[in-house]
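New to this. Please check this fold:
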Amino acid sequence: MKPVNLIPTPRLDERHRKQRVRRWISACSAYSVMLLAAYCIIHATLGHAGQDLKDELSIVSNDIRVTQAKITAISPQVQEASLTLTASTAVGSQPDWSILLALLADELGNRVVLSTVRLEPTTDLSKTQPTVSAVANRYTLHLQGVGQSQALVSQYVLKLEASKLFDRIKLIDSNRGPFGAGEAVSFRLTCEFGSR
């Protein structure tokens, strides 16, 4: 047989509701006590941290002011160094033609004189469209001068070839003719060089 509850349903609902309210009140009270205890523990451990943070903040602020003053003081030097670096980079990528001129002068001797030295970038005609690097890395040097004899001019050409700086040296022409009170040999050369 089935037990029958004679208590009216609204009363039962009211009783269950009061029990739930009591449970919630005790749970909230316990939670409040735990929060209060946690707050007390945190305050006891970190209570002086606020002052420490203020001290740290003032130290960091002072460091920032000192660093900004140093940056302001060194700024003109940095700008000057930047300009020097820019100029060095622009010039540093260019060849030092004084070395080439020194080589040409060293090989001359006392009896050969150059009257014209002209340097031109060389384009490779075998390519349909020359690249920028090919134009910038290959050069043709045109030399024109006078020597006392054909033998001295030939020796000069051989000395230039022996330097192994040039890929190809070509004697365009050499002519004997009057020079001052005597005779001399005028010559024209082309020398090709650059990276391969």
Strands lie at 112-121, 138-147, 168-179, 182-194. The domain at 97-194 is CATH 3.30.1360.100 (Gyrase A; domain 2). The longest helix spans residues 49-92.
